[in-house]
Structures are given as structure tokens and as C-alpha cells.
Amino acid sequence: xxxxxxxxxxxxxxxxxxxTDPAALGDEDxxxxxxxxxxxQSVQLVAAFxxxxxxxxxxxxALQVQTVSGAVDFIAGxxx
Amino acid sequence: MPDSSAPAKKHNLDRIFYPxxxxxxxTTSVAGTVPYDIFANIVxxxxxxxxxxxxxxxxxxxCFKTYKYVKDIPDPVDLAVVVFPASVCHLxxxxxxxxxxxxxxxxxxxxxxxxxxxxxREERLKAIADKYGMSFLGPNCLGVINTDPDVRLDASxxxxxxxxxxxxxxxxxxxxxxxxxxxxxxxxxxxSKFVSFGNKADVSEIDLLNYLKDDPKxxxxxxxxxxxxxxxxxxxxAQEVIRKSGKPIxxxxxxxxxxxxxxxxxxxxxxxxxxxxxxxALRQAGIVRCHSIQxxxxxxxxxxxxxxxKGNRVAIVTNxxxxxxxxxxxAIEDGLVLAKFSDETTAKFKRFLPATANIKNPVDVxxxxxxxxxxxxxxxxxxxxxxxxxxxxxxxxxxxxxxxIADAVSQQAHRGAGKPVYASFxxxxxxxxxxxxxxxxxxxxxxxxxxxxxxxxxxxRFRAASQAEHVAPATFNDVDPAKAxxxxxxxxxxxxxxxxxxDAERVLAAYxxxxxxxxxxxxxxxxxxxxxxxxxxxxxxxxxxxxxxxxDVGGVVLDVDGDKAARAAYASIMSQVAARCPxxxxxxxxxxxxxxxxxxxxxxxxxxxxxGPVVMFGxxxxxxxxxxxxxxxxxxxxxxxAGAMVRETRAYPKLxxxxxxxxxxxxxxxxxxxxxxxxxxDCPEIKELDVNPLLVLAEGEGCFxxxxxxxx
Lengths: 80, 712
What we know:
Chain A is an all-alpha fold. Chain A has a single domain, classed as ACP-like (Non-ribosomal Peptide Synthetase Peptidyl Carrier Protein, Chain A). Helix content of chain A is 59%, strand content 0%. Chain A has helices at 3-18, 39-53, 59-62, 68-79. In chain A, helix 1 packs across helix 2 (39-53) and helix 1 crosses helix 4 (68-79). Chain A is globular and about 30 Å long. Among the domains of chain B are: 308-467, Rossmann fold, CATH 3.40.50; 517-594, Dna Ligase, domain 1 (2-Layer Sandwich), CATH 3.30.1490; 599-711, ATP-grasp fold, B domain (D-amino Acid Aminotransferase, Chain A, domain 1), CATH 3.30.470. Chain B is built from 24 helices and 30 strands. In chain B, the strands form 6 sheets. Chain B has a 7-stranded mixed beta sheet, sandwiched between helices. In chain B, strands 20, 25, 26, 27, 28, 29 and 30 form a 7-stranded antiparallel beta sheet that branches. Chain B has a 5-stranded parallel beta sheet with strand order 2-1-5-6-7, sandwiched between helices. In chain B, helix 11 (321-333) links the parallel strand 15 and strand 16 (337-338). The chains are: A mainly alpha, B alpha/beta.
């Protein structure tokens, strides 16, 4: 899967979970500081990414990812 | 130990305690979470200024418009309360700095307390704060409460804001704060400032002490500490507060166990555990150390609510004989004395109290006493020039009008002409009616007479100590630091971890400590010759780097009186030591003049991780570690402290001539303590030092170092 497609789907997931406009998301937006994700939403994001991409993510490492582009890189790594 | 000489960062703590506006950075709309509850507390407790919630995921919280970033707030912000998770606190702090905010409270946990990664995060916050000239409290804290009606700031996640009072509470532990608030509320104890300072990455307890010194709303400062990072700075700040403002500082320092003391290489190292040193340092600084929350508040209300006692003479007024005796016992044990009433006072008691009343101290107004008897007895006792304060005891009989008695006690207390009144309404269920009145009117109340007496004694001791003359540490100009350092450096170059006695004595001699003189012999014949030269009797001791406690291995012979005895002693020492320590290298036998009739004391020096060089004094000799009759002074030891160190030991009466013994040359001992103190300050290479024994002759005849050991 191309990185661009991953990024597009990641933003869709983020928009759905955090109830925000995917088009307004910046690549370097921080889930907590910029998007206001709380701890519950962070866990929900990981679950939603797993479902969207049909992958399993190590939760402790996944929760350390802080930005949109960091999530894209992490998921790309899982898909390899 | 931190470098106290580094310039301290200037903090403007008014921005933390008296902000004109507050932003809660990283708050949420979910009640019951720390970020929300802090915002809600600020609003609920009626902060006297605008509050700005910063919450990137929410548009409105409790009718307050939120801001995505702190930089979006259109108005100036004095204080940012940062409640984001630790991983993004630095982003928030950076924006606060860019926005010109000069003060912050970082509530979030996940810093130094969680290990290496957290420490890096904490250092990052500190670097950002320094870059923008910000001051911040925390991280990892409960927050700050200021009850001053001018600001009414409750920037914390405590359950309720305390009532206004004169007591400031500073705590390194956040969780303890909430327990203390609940404890205090039940007793109607109010606070001026309530501060949880957490990891003290930037603003420390020392900065807070300096601030509270000038805070007109604070009369007493309470502090809970888990670690002392800069002992000398803490002592200096406390002394400044106490001497300049007269405000008492009460401190609980937890972690009193003594790990590592067992591995010490000297008597001093073994006896000067970190808690003993901390105890001495706090006393030297004038800080009142408490060992429980109960004790701390017992003492605090005595000091905050009533004048400090000018003396230790107490009048006890009671309606119960037994508790009166219990109070008397406790008072005497705590160093108080029962006031002797004047004839005039006694006449008043006779006139107004029943014939069955006890009109001597403790004054027993008898079980059926009502408020009028307490009014008369307490009034007369307080007016007596021989009483420095009054302790009132009430037990609830069927006719005891508790509310009226509480009212009478508080009336007398408020016209007490500078004398304190404390009360103990014994019991719980019925007594509560009177106790509530006392608490509301700021009469210190104690459930037991014993805690009442202990608090009176603590308040008296604090006043006496703070009014005592302070004598600066002596500086001796006849010392030779270069010579001492050269000897120490040579030993270090040789890879030694300690100095042999002869070298240790040379170091002490360079600092003017009086030596007995000694010579090392390597044969029975030279031993006898050296002994004859000193004049008999002499003391002979093995010289070996491998033997710490010479007596234990048969390495010491006392009272050697004659050439033949000297040769025999030499042979005995060599054979016994060889048998008991076959691997020890023996450099010979040291011969010293034997002084009869001298008292043996110990002097020591140790470098403490928090407080630096510490001087020890105590009863010396072989059993020093068993008797543990020692006291400590933090170097540089002030002149008044040197004398106090001697007086604090149980051996003091023996040294002053108890039971027909000669008074000893304690002035000489005090000089030795101060010379050793100067050595400790000048020569940080010295890790531990024992002078054991220091032989103390009769008053005016001096004292002499008989044995010494220095560890590097």
C-alpha cells in the first residue's frame, strides 16, 4: 500500500474517532496537544487503526506515537 | 550536594500566588478527571480574575469558551496551570513562554519520579522555563491554594478549598496534601497558602520559604519533605525566616531509616546516619521537627493561635484530679514547671472557689464546676506574674456546661495579656460541643493533656531558641590549610583510603588541635627507650593500616609503667595482633604519655550528602557505638552551637562535675569542635574523621588528642 493511501485512511480514522475534519489535519499535528485526544481516545485510535488496516499493533509502542505522520510511519511498518 | 555558590534563579512567586488571570492548559470537559477538576475548582472557589480553559478537543467547558492553544488567548495571562500528559507538557510550556506567561504550575506526573526518561522530560521543562524567564512549580504536584480573599485561588485537585487561616503548608507529596486538608477541615484549621511543590524542578521549598517570610497572611510555616537536595541552603533560608520574621517553621522529614551506616569505616560514620545529621541540621537552623501530622498540627495551632510562651511556668486549671496529675507528669517530662502562685492569687482562689477546691497548682475547681469557676480561676492564674501560660482541662460531668466553659476560656485567652491559653476538653461525643467553640475561636485544643503539654513545651522552646544569642562560627587564623591539604594529597596519591595516626595527627596539628605527642617503635627495645623519654606511665597501641579498632584485637596496653613493662607490652601486642589478625600489616607500636584522670570524649567529622561536613561530639572510649551518647553540628559550627553540642549529651552533667568529679575543660572542647569544623569546611577530601579519645583534663588544664583516624 502506498504511503499516500495510508495517510489518507489514517486521517479518515482520526477524523472519525476524534470527531474532527480529516481535511483540516496537518501531518505534524500532535494527537494530544493539537487534537485534544484523551487517554481513552488514544486507545480507541489504536483499535480503529488495527481494524482499518487489518493489523495488530503493540499497544505500548503504538501509544507512544504522538503525531499523524508518526502514525502513518508506524502503520506502514506494520504492513511491511 | 548542589553547589550553593551558584547564583539562585530569581522567582516572582506573586504570579503563582496572586495571578490576575489564569489559563488551565490541557483541561477537558470530563468531570472527575484531574484536568477538569482543577479548572472547576478555580471557577467554583471564585478566583478573582478571568479563567481561560485551553482544550484543543473541546469548544466549550461549563459555559466557558475554550482556546485550542494558550497563544490564542487574546488577553494577558499571569499563570498557566499545565495539566497535559507529560509527553506534551514541553509543547505547552514552549507556547506559554512564547506568549509571555511568566509563571506556571505543572500538575502532570510522569517526570523524574518515573526514571531516566521522565528526568529528561523534566530537564526539558526546566530548560524551556529558563529560556523564557518563567518560574514553575512541580511537576508532579497537586497544585496551589491561596485563601486570601483578594485572589481566592484554588488551582488544585483537592476536594475542597480550606478556610482562610494563618498557617502555610508546603508539601513534596501531593497525596499527603489532600489528607492534611481533610484533617484540618475537621478541626476548623485554616490556611494562608497551601502548596504542593512536587518534584521541585524549578521552584523549591527554599524559594517558597523565602516568599512566605514576607507574606503578611502567614504566621506559621509547615513543611513535609522527602528529600533535602541542598541542606545548607535550606538551613540558611530557615534561619532567615525565623530571625527576620519570627515565623516558626515546622517540618516533617520522612525517610528516617539509616541505610549504609553499618558499612561506615569510623565511629563517626557509624553514628552519624543521615537522619541523625538531618535532625541536628534542623535543630541548628531553628526548625521544629515533627514526626507525625498530628504532632505538627498540635504544635502549629499553639503557635498560630496564641502568643508564644515567654517562659516554661504553666498554671493548670482542671475540674478533675486524675487528669490534673496526668498533665502535671507530662508537663514536667516535657521540661515545663508548675507555676508557684502569689499570695494575692491564692487569696483570690480561696475567696471564689469552694473550700474543697485545690488552690495549689494544678488548680482543681472540682467536678461540679461551671463556667463561673473556670472564669475566676483562669483569670487569677493568668494574671499571676509567676505563670507564663495556662492549660485548661475539662471533663464532662452531668452539670458541666461545656459551651459556657469554652466561651469563658476563650474570653480569658483573648484578654490574656500576651500569655497563651490551651485547652483539653477530654472525651469525644459530649466534649465536641465545647471543642467546636474553642476551635472556632482559635483556642488550641488537644484531646489529651499530654499533647497539650508537649505543644506548650515546643512553643516555649522555639521562642527560647529564636531569642537566644547567635554566635557566628569562629575563624582561626593560626591554621595551616596548605599543610593539611598537602598531607591529604600525598595520602591520596599513594592510593590510601585513610591516614595512619601519625599523619592524621599532623593534619590536626595544622588546625591547632592539641596533641598528646607520640612515637612509633619497631622493637621492644626502642619502645622502652621512647617510653622512658616520655616518662612513665605510657600507653602503647599497634600501628596498622589494616586494623580499625585496635582494642578488639589486643592492640592496646594502658598504664605501662617501666622499661620492663614496656618491652613486655610490645611483645604482647605483636603476638596478640598476629594471632587475631594474621593478615594485617603491622608498622610498629605507638607510644604515648598516659594521662590519668582525664575524661575521654570523642570528636568526629563526616561529610553528609545533603548537609556537607558534620562535626560530632560525644562520650568517647571503647563503648561509643554502644552508648551512642553523641550530638552533631553542621559545619561551619556556630559558636553557640558548639556549646549546645556539649550540653545536649547525657554525659554533660558528668563533665561539669557531677558527684564530686572535677569540672572538665569544656571551653577547650568547644574550641576543638570549632577547629575541627574549620578543617571540615577547608578540606573536602576528608570523608570521615575520628578523634577518639580526646582526653579532657580539669577546667583550665586543656584537652589532648590521644588517637585520631582520617578516612579519605
